[in-house]
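Here is the promised in-class demo. Please do not try to memorize the tokens; focus on the logic of going from shape to residues.
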């Protein structure tokens, strides 16, 4: 019996998860991954750890090694870019980026995990030397060298999201003067509600980061290399620019063949199928179902791609799967110098983008009982809950503290996924031990506060 030939485009989270699960689950499959890049496959979300010398080696900061696939009977080709799909013939055009030669490869099933590419700001000077993207193996090498380059004194970071915050922290700790810039008025404003971004703002400025918010970039200044970033208000000196101003789906090559949304995302049905027969899509290039929003929206996370991959593999041989992809919550975490936070679901910004009405509640307390002094680790803790104003269904939330309470973010994620209410969370039965918590847990108290109950 001939094997079912499955071609996977892209070797990142969704691509390699699909390959491993296919090879583990089915015997009669021939699985091949095509990756346009040279290195298979750098984990960009681990870049800060690499830049801070907190990894075993740069080559280890990866999702998998090719031999993880080949040892199971699969095939991995780096430096091979899939450039076109011929759905009638069920074949893809694959270009060897080293030799320039193109071949036609047939498939029975095709999985698209083409990902995203960093946004290039369309302003004068965007092609100057010294403007870096914080993504991928090659950029990681260049950024690492820049942290110890004494000629680089001023670093401008464009974009105050997760990647921008990481870059700002890395270069501040490396002794550089960092200016963090964004069009919005709050750092991490697309991820956290205002009570938590207020804490983040104070932490950044206390560590010496200069904030240039509510700013639009007019141009990059310089001759051959960048020397500054010009906004409507002033020009900020910059010997190096880290551009973390978002990403766009890597889907231009699919235009006219695969249906795309107006923003260029691959349009999939509830079963992660495209308009082409036997062609599936996953990862950052699609809009997955958001459980709290009840509709598709961008959720660019490795955890999302892996869940999508597992779903596709489980149902790849069903014309119409028995169940649709159940969706995701969108949970993530980050450190901002001395603070750590975890967030899940919707916040005021993301809810507004998808037209979901929400209410919010902010709660501040201490980690442990009042008789435990700060010197013994009783630090401040902050929470934010986002919920339906009528039903009280929890739609999102976040926790933040100098003590690592990020595991509480998983509780919020579970509450969002299972559509719990404030009332459910207010009385949920969590453990108590005074060395860790209090009789009413932090999230109990946060929900009780949102319901207007007196503070315990």
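The designed amino acids, position by position:
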């Amino acid at each position: 019996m001939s094997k079912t030939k499955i071609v996977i485009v892209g070797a990142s989270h969704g691509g390699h998860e699909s390959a491993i699960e296919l090879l583990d689950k089915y015997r009669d499959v021939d699985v091949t991954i095509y990756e346009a890049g040279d290195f298979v496959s750098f984990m960009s979300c681990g870049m800060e750890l690499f830049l801070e010398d907190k990894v075993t080696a740069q080559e280890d900061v990866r999702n998998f090694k090719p031999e993880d696939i080949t040892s199971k009977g699969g095939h991995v080709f780096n430096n091979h870019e899939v450039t076109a799909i011929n759905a009638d013939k069920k074949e893809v055009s694959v270009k060897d980026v080293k030799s320039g030669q193109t071949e036609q490869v047939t498939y029975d099933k095709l999985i698209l995990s083409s990902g995203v590419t960093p946004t290039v700001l369309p302003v004068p000077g965007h092609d100057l030397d010294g403007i870096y993207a914080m993504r991928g193996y090659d950029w990681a090498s260049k950024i690492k060298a820049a942290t110890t380059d004494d000629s680089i004194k001023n670093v401008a970071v464009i974009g105050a999201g997760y990647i921008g915050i990481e870059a700002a922290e890395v270069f501040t700790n490396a002794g550089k003067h960092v200016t963090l810039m964004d069009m919005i008025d709050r750092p991490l404003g697309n991820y956290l509600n205002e009570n938590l971004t207020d804490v983040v703002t104070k932490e950044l400025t206390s560590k010496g980061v200069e904030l240039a918010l509510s700013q639009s970039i007019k141009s990059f200044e310089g001759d051959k290399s960048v020397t500054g970033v010009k906004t409507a208000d002033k020009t900020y000196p910059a010997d190096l620019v880290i551009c973390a101003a978002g990403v766009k789906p890597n889907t231009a090559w699919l235009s006219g063949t695969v249906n795309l949304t107006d923003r260029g995302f691959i349009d999939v049905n509830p079963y992660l199928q495209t308009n082409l027969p036997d062609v599936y899509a996953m990862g950052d290039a699609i809009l997955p179902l958001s459980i709290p929003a009840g509709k598709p929206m961008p959720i660019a996370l490795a955890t999302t791609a892996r869940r999508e991959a597992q779903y596709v593999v489980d149902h790849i041989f069903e014309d119409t799967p028995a169940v649709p992809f159940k969706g995701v919550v969108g949970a993530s975490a980050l450190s901002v110098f001395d603070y750590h936070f975890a967030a899940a679901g919707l916040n005021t910004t993301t809810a507004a983008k998808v037209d979901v009405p929400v209410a919010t509640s902010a709660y501040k307390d201490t980690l442990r009982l009042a008789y435990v002094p700060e010197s013994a680790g009783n630090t401040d803790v902050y929470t934010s809950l986002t919920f339906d104003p009528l039903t009280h269904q929890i739609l999102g939330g976040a926790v933040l503290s100098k003590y690592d309470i990020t595991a509480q973010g998983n509780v919020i994620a579970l509450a969002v996924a299972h559509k719990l209410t404030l009332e459910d969370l207010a009385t949920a039965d969590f453990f108590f031990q005074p060395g860790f918590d209090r009789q009413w847990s932090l999230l109990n108290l946060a929900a009780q506060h949102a319901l207007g109950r007196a503070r315990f």
